[in-house]
Amino acid sequence: MDNVAMVVDDLPAAKAFFAELGLELEGEATLEDSAVDRIVGLKGVRTDVAMMRTPDGHGRLELTKYHTPSSPAGDPHAPANTLGTQRVMFAVEDMDDILDRLRPHGAELVGELVQFGTSHRLCYLRGPAGIIVALAEQTG
Length: 140
Prior knowledge:
The chain is an alpha+beta fold. Helices cover 18% and strands 39% of the residues.
């Protein structure tokens, strides 16, 4: 897999959120031409894209802000079992520290932080544009 893409409404805020999780900005671009239109099946596309790389260098997250055409509104509070809901999970080393650092960026727990068996602490939280971000801290 090359990357996972997420459509966001506030690209600077999304970059700051994922940077707080340890992702590094790999590059940015504005895309607009007939080739982009044909790829995504829309007309008059103009987007700003930021590619974020995971600290281990093995994963990338593409954050996309559509300027035109405007993005249809979604439900930023859709439950985790909504069809098509996007969720991305990150392994973290200090769950409490990460949660404290993400809250100023608007992160809110979807449910609870749970000790899952003896091996992991897990939680789901809402990130930019209502994206569900799962965090896993190995404990055993």
